[in-house]
Design goal:
Layout lengths: L9 H7 L11 E2 L6 E2 L10 E2 L2 E2 L16
Antiparallel strand pairs: 1-2, 3-4
């Protein structure tokens, strides 16, 4: 079994891992609503893809205050 003869230095280790960083996401504006999202996917805001409604958009419920009446 192969065993390293010397400890790998921090410098050598960091040079090797220089390309392991996560890159920025590739986002495109939705042609329908303008929000940014992943290309070639249905818009998470309006549910449109290529001019067709694919997913019905979720409606946010408004919370009512119980103290006011």
């Amino acid at each position: 079994m192969a065993v390293p003869k010397r400890k790998t230095s921090q410098h050598r280790k960091r040079i090797r891992r220089a390309h392991h960083a996560i890159g920025k996401p590739n986002l495109r504006p939705c042609p329908n609503c303008g929000t940014f999202g992943i290309p070639h996917r249905a818009c998470s805001n309006c549910g449109m893809y290529k001019g067709m409604l694919i997913i019905a958009p979720k409606v946010k419920k408004v919370k009512e205050d119980k103290g006011k009446a």
